[in-house]
Amino acid sequence: MDKRDLDDYSLIKQYLGGNSQSLELLINRHKNKVFSYILLVVKNRELAEDIFQDTFIKVIKSLHAGKYKEEGRFVSWVMRISHNLIIDYYRKAKHIKTIADDDIEAPLFNSAKFSDDTIEDLLVSEQINADIKLLIEDLPDEQREVVKLRYYFDMSFKEISDQTEVSINTALGRMRYAIINLRKLIEKSKIDLVKA
């Protein structure tokens, strides 16, 4: 039987049994889908290549540690790993950033936002954003994922449904419930979303 005809789980078992060619087949089978997703999110080929490489390093370590369970599809599991590595990258990048003109999306001067908002307004906006981000972490996993993909990664609901392997209606429903739950959390936390 040709190895290319084997399913993912059989290839994983062979790889863990010492056959490194099985892993190569697995990577080749799914590399386009995984890399395309990473590139779609990070929009930078070099960064996408780094994260792609880190994804499969983590896949190999996780397989050897026995963290892959047969119940999930292998490619979905790999996509989740890549998704988490992307989030980790952006978290680290955010902590490393220092305030400089390069870090500001719009030009610092000749900007209506700069002339209209005082430093106090900007600090209040930052605080509101930080509060909202904390509340998003309190959402159920499926709702939190849709919110992050939509607002942090600017993905369409079609892209979200492909990534999470649910219908567009399910993705929209999760977003709807996420917004309802966020409103409740905002009221409960007494966060004022209006700048003074």
Characterise the protein shown here.
With 196 residues, this protein is mainly alpha-helical. It starts with 7 loop residues before the first helix and ends in a 7-residue tail after the last helix. The longest helix is centred in the N-terminal third of the chain and has 23 residues, at 20-42. It is built from 9 helices and no strands. It has 2 domains: 1-97, RNA polymerase sigma factor, region 2, helix turn helix motif (Rna Polymerase Sigma Factor, Chain: A), CATH 1.10.1740; 103-196, Orthogonal Bundle (Arc Repressor Mutant, subunit A). Helix 3 crosses helix 4. The radius of gyration is 21 Å and the shape is elongated.
Give the secondary structure arrangement, pairings included.
Layout: H1 8-16, H2 20-42, H3 45-64, H4 74-96, H5 112-116, H6 119-136, H7 141-152, H8 157-164, H9 168-189
Give structural attributes.
196 residues, mainly alpha, Rna Polymerase Sigma Factor, Chain: A, Arc Repressor Mutant, subunit A, 9 helices
Brief account:
This protein has helices spanning 8-16, 20-42, 45-64, 74-96, 112-116, 119-136, 141-152, 157-164, 168-189. By secondary structure, it is an all-alpha fold.
As a percent range, the share of helical residues equals over 70%
Largest sheet: none
State the CATH architecture of the largest domain: Orthogonal Bundle
Rg is 21 Å
What is the SS-derived class? mainly alpha
Output the CATH homologous superfamily of the largest domain: RNA polymerase sigma factor, region 2, helix turn helix motif
CATH topology of the largest domain: Rna Polymerase Sigma Factor, Chain: A
Order of helices and strands: HHHHHHHHH
β-sheet strand percentage: under 5%
By DSSP (H or I, 4+ residues per run), the number of helices equals 9
Uncertain ranges? 98-116
Distance between the termini: 71 Å
CATH class of the largest domain: Mainly Alpha
* Average predicted local confidence, pLDDT: 79
Number of strands: 0
